[in-house]
Amino acid sequence: TDACLAAIDNADALNAFVHKTPDIAREQAAAADARLKTGDAPDLCGIPLGIKDLFCTKGVASQAASRILEGFRPEYESTVTTKLFEAGSVMLGKLNMDEFAMGSSNETSVYGNAVNPWRRGNDDAHLTPGGSSGGSAAAVAADLCLGATGTDTGGSIRQPAAFTGITGIKPTYGRCSRWGIVAFASSLDQAGPMAKDVRDAAIMLQAMCGHDPKDSTSADLPVPDFESMLTGDIKGKKIGIPKEYHMDGMPAEIDALWASGRDMLRDAGAEIVDISLPHTKYALPAYYVIAPAEASSNLARYDGVRYGHRAKLSQGDGITEMYENTRAEGFGEEVKRRVMVGTYVLSAGFYDAYYNRARKVRTLIKKDFEDAFHAGIDAILTPATPSAAFGLGEMVEADPVAMYLNDVFTVTVNLAGLPGVSVPAGLNGQGLPLGLQLIGRPWEEGDLLNTAYALE
Ligand code: GLN
User: Fold this and answer.
1) Residue 96, pLDDT score
2) Other C-beta atoms within 10 Å of 305: how many?
3) Is the CB of 292 under 6 A from ligand 1?
4) 360 is a catalytic site residue
5) 52, 83, 237, 238: which one is catalytic?
6) Is residue 372 in contact with ligand 1, taking CB distance under 6 Å?
7) Of the ranges 139-148, 287-296, 403-412, 444-453, which one carries the lowest mean pLDDT score?
8) Which helix (H) or strand (E) holds 136?
9) How many CA atoms lie within 13 A of 28 on its CB side?
């Protein structure tokens, strides 16, 4: 813990930790030491972690990287962080992210962007660590903590993991409780671990999941011992290669990465099978209707009355001006864009044309995966992202859709509620990490992690 706290203080340039909690960390570390002496030490006893700013942590600023939550200190602890602390882990502080987890580059944060510790060749230009869990990815990659929590609504664990050469898993929807995590799009949001390797991710995930009566969508299922399932034996497993993920204009290095992943799994004894997920091309449009729709509803609660920032009122202002000015000042550009899109697609005149249509597409995407699994496929291999980490500012200058396209390989998994893991799979010609994604059957994270383990 002391070594991590010192590393964090030396790494302010990465802008990964936005609230440091050294006092809490030292207190938890001392308690872990005492617990170790009693011999009753769980797996995470004394392990220093970073927590994404989207998680409510009792008495500690929890702002979802938004101005509108300025000054908000929750009276409660999220279920996931409670479980991590019960398992003995130590909180070093809160990690940077895109505002309300909306983004793929950590550039919508009120704290400014986090920085990727990796550089492109000899180029000094700063790269994005990805998003929205950019601070988590940068912190783990730069050895500021041993692991971090992330959340993934459309790829926010897997894409930053790929951009920084670490491992991240989004479990099946319902595996981790969403209680106490600031809501973005409730039917898609899941928490998960971001860690240095598959084994660490398995150990963290073990502690994070489990049934929680406080989240009605949390699954009442036993949690297997994920770590004990990491045997590396994947003989006879059927790995699907979906042809629709061969995108036009995909960089050659991504094709090469995918081919090397196929070879590694085949060499480990798996059978490689070409499959089709025919509705893949509708996933991004459906996601960018459903996620904003749910966000516009979830974010209605930030009205200047209950939490955080409130605009100063002028003489004659009433409650309407208070709401309007608070939201105008408190939300950033991207959040406002999502609220407007979401409100539009949910409005009476357009509900059927957009929101209901997107929900039907979502069902078809889910069925594509079910068909593949019914046909005996155990896991599906794809690239995690369509490129390596891009430069800060590069995508923001393009139109917002260019940024949205970055999620092309990840959003299908959230729409279908499936578990997906991103594992580092080598470096590109410029020395930047690339990630492969494996998608698994619902509730079979242990099996999925074991396949990922074979790729490591
Ligand atoms: N980049 C996607 C978005 O902006 C996904 C974000 C996430 O998974 N939280 O919505």
Assistant:
1) 98
2) 11
3) no
4) no
5) 52
6) no
7) 403-412
8) helix 134-141
9) 25
Which tens digit of pLDDT belongs to each residue from 407-447?
999 999 999 999 999 999 999 999 999 999 999 999 999 99
Better pLDDT: 404 or 240: 240
Per-residue 3-state assignment (H helix, E strand, C coil) for 4-46: HHHHHHCCHHHCCEEEECHHHHHHHHHHHHHHHHHCCCCCCCC
Q: What is the number of the ligand 1 atom nearest to the C-alpha of 101?
A: 9
Would you tell me the crossing angle of helices 283-298 and 357-374 to the nearest 10 degrees? 120
Structure tokens at 155: 């790829």
* C-alpha to C-alpha distance for 73 and 174, rounded to whole angstroms: 26
The torsion defined by the Cα of 213, 215, 218 and 223, in degrees rounded to 10, comes to: -50
CA of 150 to the centre of ligand 1 (A): 12
Burial level of 5, CB count in 10 A (0-12/13-18/19+)? buried
Q: Which helix (H) or strand (E) holds 252?
A: helix 252-267
Which residues pair with residue 275 across a beta bridge? Answer: 242
Q: Is residue 117 in some structural domain?
A: yes
Supply the CATH number for residue 203's domain.
3.90.1300.10
The 8-class DSSP code of residue 165 comes to T
Q: Is residue 299 part of a domain?
A: no
Q: What's the pTM?
A: 0.98
For the segment 314-354, what is each residue's pLDDT rounded down to a tens digit? Answer: 999 999 999 999 999 999 999 999 999 999 999 999 999 99
Residue 72 lies in a domain: yes
SS3 47: coil
> Any residues with CB less than 8 A from the CB of 32 and at least 6 apart, and which?
41, 45, 46, 88, 90
| Residue 352 Cα distances to 345, 348, 349, 414, angstroms | 8, 8, 8, 22
- Ligand 1 center to residue 100 CA distance, Å? 9
Q: And the tokens for 377?
A: 């496929």
pLDDT digits (tens, 9 = 90+) for 261-310: 999 999 999 999 999 999 999 999 999 999 999 999 999 999 999 889 99
For residue 76, the enclosing domain spans 2-228
Instruction: With respect to residue 120, please indicate whether it lies within any of the assigned structural domains.
Output: yes
pLDDT > 80? residue 13 = yes
Give me the residue label for tokens 């074991």. 450
**Structural domain count of the chain:** 1
- Ligand 1 pocket, 105 CB below 6 A? no
